[in-house]
Amino acid sequence: MKNNNTPFGAKLNLRGGTRQAGVGLVKYFKTTGKQNLVIVLATIALFVVFTLINPNFASKSNLLLMSKSLVPYAILALGVTFVIATGGIDLSIGTVCIGAPVLAGAICSTGVTQEEGTLWLTIPIILITGLVFGLINGFLIAKCKIAPFIATLGTMLFSRGMTSVIAQYITEKTSAIKYPTTGWFQKIFTSYEGFPIGLIWVLVLTAICMVVMFKTKVGRYILAIGSNEEAARLSGINVDKYKIIAYAIGGLFAGIAALFWTAANPSLTLASGNGMELDAIAGVYIGGTSTTGGAASVMGTIFGSIILVVIRQGLNIALMTFGINLSATFITYAVTGVIVVGAVLLDVLKKKSANKVKIETPCQKRRREIKEHIADLKLELDYARSAKNNPEADARVKEIPAEIAALKAEYKSVK
Fold first, then answer.
1. Distance of CA 7 to CAs 13, 170, 373, 384, 396, Å?
2. How many other CB atoms are found less than 10 A from the CB of residue 104?
3. What is the pLDDT of residues 324-338, one digit of tens each?
4. How far is residue 48's CA from residue 61's CA, in Å, rounded to a whole number?
5. Which residues does 282 contact at the CB level (< 8 Å), separation at least 6?
6. 3-class SS at 59?
7. DSSP string covering 149-213, please?
8. Which of 110, 184, 264, 386 is the most exposed place for a label (fewest CB within 10 A)?
9. Cα 65 from Cα 413, distance rounded (Å)
């Protein structure tokens, strides 16, 4: 069936679709994707360097270890991306990520074997606990008008303490909450027959987040709130509602991340989880999401999380290889701090550059118009080549190359 909304009523063929996808990718990396490209190249460079230092860095066992470490932090970061896109922050996701399975394990009496307690029931309890804390954060910030930093600092302390108190009351002990070390829980959330199944979950959740953020009303309103909250309110957006939704998403993803963390680390210490939120937030900032809201990069969040895992594990192996008696964790904190400050500084500089008034000279304006016209002609050519049994399209296939050549000649002559 022909599509009358496209040139010549045609649908792009494989060649035309591939070329336009390439054009879109180049345009993305020239504009919003520059930071992501830098992160990807830096990650590849670091991977090569650490592998040269110690070939075991690229071993199957180490890659599996890094993937297990990446998954919960990446999922936490995906959730908090929505929060940061509103211009807010959520400091509670780390303690919720540990507190939720602590609470669920105590209620369901889980143990080191699958036969102990009701393991399947922990999944909805963990997810609901994460969602509830997200809703509490959203309510405190949107309705009670408490600053995000203060509100989520309060829920961070509350979630860490209250879940531990309840767990201690139920189990009558303060020892770690145990989950099975092997079984269906691990096959679903960690490793399925040696394959890091968590990475598939990350890809699926990333795709869902990209659709929600950029293709739905929820995402567009969240970005609008982060860009200019008062303008969003005046345009008719229910700001409080969508702020609560953003924090609810962050809380729900903290619950999802808890499932993967628990499957990989089946012994959970009470009142722990501090610091996890900082790694997740750092990944979001490094990935290019604006610190003041209004602009978000879901793929950047994943890239930011990956580079932090590579740095953490790479430093650990490098220090052992050279026999240096220093903690890789401490060095990673220092390096991460420098990277985060650099990423935020880059965001500030980008905003300053975007806010500058740029005055085009007549020549610059004409060169820009020629480039845009050539791009339009190339798109038209792709559609013309894709059209079948269309005399008009066949004629344009012959005419467009000459028009493009003339425009290129004019572009070179404009000084």
1. 13, 68, 15, 7, 11
2. 31
3. 888 878 888 898 889
4. 17
5. 304, 308, 336, 339, 340
6. coil
7. HHHHHHHHHHHHHHHHHHHHHHHSS-SPEE--SSSHHHHHHT-BTTB-HHHHHHHHHHHHHHHHH
8. 184
9. 58
Q: Which residues contact 72 (CB under 8 A, 6 or more apart)?
A: 97, 257, 258, 260, 261, 264, 276
Count other C-beta atoms under 10 Å from residue 13's C-beta.
14
Distances (CA, A) of 379 to 68, 72, 390: 43, 42, 17
Q: Pick the closest to residue 130 from 262, 300, 291 (CA basis).
A: 262
- Residue 117 burial (CB < 10 Å; 0-12/13-18/19+)? buried
Amino acid at 254: A
Are 289 and 85 a contacting pair, CB within 8 Å? yes
Average pLDDT over residues 34-59: 90
Please give the model's pTM, rounded to 2 decimal places.
Answer: 0.86
| CB-CB contact of 261 with 156 (8 Å) | no
Q: Which amino acid is at 383?
A: Y
Q: Where are the alpha helices (DSSP H) in 31-88?
A: 34-53, 60-85
In tens, the pLDDT along 345-370 reads: 887 887 777 677 677 888 888 999 99
